[in-house]
Amino acid sequence: MEWFTAPDYWLTRLVFQRALAAVYLVAFLTAALQFRALIGARGMLPVPRYTEYVPFKRAPSLFQLHYSDRFFAVCAWAGCAVSAALLAGVDSMVPLWAGMLLWVLPWLLYLSIVNVGQTWYSFGWESLLLEVGFLAVFLGNDEVAPPIVVLFLLRWILFRVEFGAGLIKLRGDACWRKLTCLDYHHETQPMPGPLSWFFHHLPRPLHRVEVAANHFTQLVVPVLLFTPQPIATAAAALMVVTQLWLVLSGNFSWLNWITIVLALAAIQFPTDPPSVPGAPLWYAVVVLAVAALIAFLSYRPVTNMISRRQVMNRSFDPLHLVNTYGAFGSVSRVRYEVVIEGTADAVPHEDSDWREYEFKGKPGDPRHWPRQFAPYHLRLDWLMWFAALSPAYAGSWFGALVERLLENDRDTLRLLRRSPFPPDEPPRFIRARLFRYRYTTWRELRETGACWDRTYVREYLPPTRLAEAAQRS
Q1: Does 473 have pLDDT greater than 80?
Q2: Buried b vs exposed e over 363-402: b needs ≥16 C-beta within 10 Å?
């Protein structure tokens, strides 16, 4: 069955699998460290409340069968352990079938988390990790050369990620067609990074070049993935460079990194392949059956991609086997941020001692320079960006967040950079105000040391005490 495998891609598979295991490790670590405040039994959107009205067939998950915070923690940390084992290459030390089962474990565990994660897990990179992770199960180990069909399907995912993102931009905001979106994007993106201020202040002609290069990389280069080598390798390498540029410009969780991992699967490294036996018949049958299933399921994302009403970041099946992707179909021109403050005063007034809560990643104190967190994902910080766009985005969880802050809830406070109140002295009232943020100029940065300038816009949430917050949640 020489037609079934591609021995020259054995190092490609090795690099891809280890890189994917590293992304899995970050994803599980993020879940383990943040779940109690977000979806735990006393979280803002508790899993038990969600599974009461969402049936198993709509959201298959281990936590549909049983949930406790301890069980979730065991699953999340088990995911970390398995990912670390795969990163160390344990799957190459066991028989082919056992290696496949090892790759099933992180996929199954993370699927269980995503399917009960609700709005905290509604991002495209969750489905992308699951779709890629599912195919990784069938890549094999050192007992067999990489199957050609699985390598092709990984390129197919990469094509849909990039080409779909390119199309959504052209069909969405006019600034992409005018090459002006980067005049705003670095300032208004969900979570700026330490270099975002500098990216924003690049000359505008260079921004036009960046957008044009982005269109080329997302609309032309993906087609080259299906050409002979070394053209396909060059196309994938160009995508890697583009993604690394995006890594430098902001905090996009592991979206850029999982895209880089996919691109690695299309790069043929110059090396002599080891001698391995042919693929077992059972393995070939399983791989070809999975390929047929993926081809069948691809109908809906392809239909969506070519539709004028293209939607982005949607899963078409509860197992997240085939999904549609895209990002920043529209770009905000102005940045708004919700600033949360508390006071210990018995009666709140405008001149009360209001103290600001500081988040780890989202802009707050104008003098606090953004840090690099990606590929680690600060889920609350990201959702606070959506909350600033419209209160409707935060309707399901913001009241619960305020309630937890009024209680000085330990797990919630761990999601923040700093609480202005001692652990045993919670605030009596919490309020939220909406500010407009803009990057300072070079002159303002030199004079004030602040990278942001902010202006008060309006009240977002009036002073609220514990009983009122409980009613809102």
Answers
A1: no
A2: bbebeeebeebbbbbbbbbbbbbbbbeeeebbeebbbbbb
